[in-house]
Amino acid sequence: MKTNVTCPSLPPFDEYIKEIETIWESKWLTNSGPLHQRFEEELLKYLETENLVLFTNGHLALENAIALFNFPKGSEVITTPFTFVSTTNAIVRNGLIPVFCDINPNDFTIDASKIEKLINDKTVAIVGVHVYGKVCDVETIAKIAEKHHLKVIYDAAHAFGVKFKNQNVSNFGDVTMFSFHATKVFNSIEGGCLTFKDSSFKKQLESVKNFGLCGQEECDAIGLNAKMNEFQAAMGLCNLRHVDEYIAKRKTLYSRYLTRLENVNGIVLPKDQEDLNYNYAYFPIVFDGFKKNRDQIKDNLKEKGIEARKYFFPLTSDFACYKSFEHGDTPVADYVSKHILTLPLYPDLSLKEVDYICDLILE
Ligand SMILES: *Cc1c(COP(=O)(O)O)cnc(C)c1O
How far is the CA of 133 from the centre of ligand 1 (A)? Predict the structure, then answer.
């Protein structure tokens, strides 16, 4: 038996078949078909937001979110290096310079207290990541952004279904990106969306994801193709009906990890955030003075067919493609990245498997 770090959630087979049967009648495969429209409506409700545009994946959604603001090339964006490389790629592919800020040791999101000293007259935006589904310090970040006239964009690829102070994370910052990739808490095979405050972005984003076309004979933006198709929307519709069950199952497994690994010398467990309705997206632990180091534990688990992952190692600022940018003063991120291990967590994992993984770590 092999246990991966994540495993896609699939709805009952018949449910999906029923949903895609309509496609054989309509012969409408992509370009804002009826399933796409229904999916959008259902997501607006679930994410408790006013404005939303679907994309074929989360990365293209994020890249186009940043592009909305037409920042001058070479402008600086303050961001975290402790993320999936997509976040940094989206900034740099827009011709902008990532300025790496440290993370805080409690929840590993960008350390808001270290942002202001990185701001200069080239700074245009803050791109935060709700990493592992934990929410950035959105209140402090909003204050800093207002004071310095910066835009705030959140990568919420991990944070589907998360609420802070009873507000869905879709409502923080100027724009928020969600990913519906197969490995995420909620999936539409591949997919993603943007939610945003300024309703005028809707038309602009709908056009840009369809080559910049508006109508049959007009093209007013140099767009690309980032449309979600009907099969993706059908999967999204089905999984959306079950996502609260998926999250509840994750919670049970997450709690089991917590009880099995608590009070162990040298293992630092994820901490609860106040006022958070969490989605239990990941179970990252930090080995700090444990009898074995992170890499040894990872290898031990692998020998038994269990794939834990070094999320996030290396930091994006350490990738070869980012060597020409400044690494930034990020001691906490450097440390966490070298000591953290993300354990398997997905709805179909059993409590028995969790116990087995904990036994292996503790033995
Ligand atoms: C998955 C992920 C993305 C990219 O989303 P895709 O839908 O796979 O393109 C971006 N940022 C983070 C933090 C992610 O985990």
Answer: 12
